[in-house]
UniProtKB/TrEMBL annotation:
The keyword Transit peptide does not apply. The basal body constitutes a major portion of the flagellar organelle and consists of four rings (L,P,S, and M) mounted on a central rod. Pfam families: FlgI. The gene is flgI. Keywords: Bacterial flagellum, Cell projection, Cilium, Flagellum, Periplasm, Signal. Belongs to the FlgI family. This is Flagellar P-ring protein. Assembles around the rod to form the L-ring and probably protects the motor/basal body from shearing forces during rotation. It is found in: Bacterial flagellum basal body.
Length: 373
């Protein structure tokens, strides 16, 4: 297991900054920052296309027969006969094209498209995506993509060595897709608005509904919002209200947010993130490590002069066992700052802090959710 040497210092500094605001730091955010409109969801598009103009880094047509089939079909659609032998050109690559159709997108507007190699091409740098239709989950074509592919990675190769930086088999076509069809649903045809919290929480959901109702009483004379659960808040459209103007007013309302207490641990990098509301009951902690070192130093034994003995190798093994730590410390975290100070006083490395937090959770003294990544 590999850990960052300075991660515990960064963790302590970050946690102390959070703790300086008080034992229970509640933040305020605009509704547009913590919730999204259900009717304003994104839609994913996908298509299959060809990239041409590569400098010998495209698909090998014998290893990728679908690339040759696609190339022949494209040329036939353009009125070019493809009768004859196989082509050995390596300047064509088959790619999967993906894009995200934003909400309320209108025909004629442009979006970015992503291209990823499907065959054995080594690089898409310098290639141009040929006109490719992009379909949604319903099978309808919503956009058409075409344009030069931008690849951030590069590769250089010589006779005895090569170097590659980044990914050269995927790229991006900026503003390369033109929307041809709009989504069937209309925003202003909706009867109500449904807001979905990005981090579901009952307290935040109730506070958001109360904030919206306070605004509605002053504007329309009656409440219009109700919290359905920890994620959804439904807003009924007032008879005299315009939905676009209503949403513009609601999304700028400020709500006091709340989050559950969590401790997030990434054992791969040694990163520890502790939330502001994490509490630890009084508990005694002892941490020690046992190091066992085995050294093999074989010795060569020579026979006596003028004897008929043979040279032999005698094994010799030295085993050293060393145990460090073992001090018992009392950790009591009524607030975040005290918890961090108690963990730092034990004087262990990040992997030790992770093991201690897992042990405290198993003992039932950690009043938070432990998330392992």
């Amino acid at each position: 297991m590999k850990f960052l040497g300075k991660s515990i210092a960064v963790f302590a500094a970050f946690a102390c900054v959070l703790a300086s605001a008080g034992p229970s730091m509640a933040g305020t955010s605009r509704i547009k920052d913590i919730a999204s409109l259900q009717a304003g969801r994104d839609n994913q598009l996908i298509g299959y296309g060809l990239i041409v103009g590569l400098q010998g880094t495209g698909d090998s047509l014998r290893s990728s027969p679908f690339t040759e089939q696609s190339m022949r079909a494209m040329l036939q659609n353009l009125g070019i006969s493809t009768q004859g032998g196989q082509s050995n050109a390596k300047n064509v690559a088959a790619v999967m094209v993906t894009a995200t159709l934003p909400p309320f997108a209108s025909p004629g507007s442009r979006i970015d498209a992503n291209v990823s190699s499907l065959g054995d091409a080594t690089s898409l740098r310098g290639g141009t995506l040929i006109m490719t239709s992009l379909s949604g989950a319903d099978g309808q074509i919503y956009a058409v993509a075409q344009g030069s592919a931008v690849v951030s990675g590069f590769t250089a190769q010589g006779q005895a060595a090569n170097i590659t930086e980044g990914v050269t088999t995927s790229g991006r076509v900026p503003s390369g897709a033109i929307i041809e069809r709009e989504l069937p649903s209309k925003f202003k045809d909706s009867v109500n608005l449904v807001l979905q919290l990005r981090n579901p929480d009952f307290s935040t959901s109730i506070r958001m509904a109360d904030t919206i109702n306070a605004y509605a009483r002053n504007t329309f004379g009656a409440p219009i919002a109700s919290a359905q659960d920890s994620q959804e808040v439904v807003i009924q459209k007032p008879r005299t209200a315009d939905l676009a103007r209503l949403m513009a007013a609601i999304e700028n309302l400020v709500v006091e947010t709340d989050t559950p207490a969590k401790v997030v641990i990434n054992e791969r990098t040694g990163t520890i993130v502790i939330g502001a509301d994490v509490r630890v009951s009084k508990v005694a902690v002892s941490y020690g490590t046992l190091t066992v070192q085995v050294n093999e130093t074989p010795q060569v034994i020579q026979p006596a002069p003028f004897s008929k003995g043979e040279t032999a190798v005698q094994p010799q093994t030295d085993i050293l066992a060393q145990k460090t730590g073992g001090n018992v410390a009392v950790v009591d975290g009524p607030d975040l700052k005290t918890l961090v100070a108690g963990l730092n006083n034990i004087g262990v490395k990040p992997d030790g802090i992770i093991a201690i937090l897992q042990g405290i959770k198993s003992a039932g003294a950690l009043q938070a959710e432990l998330v392992l990544q």
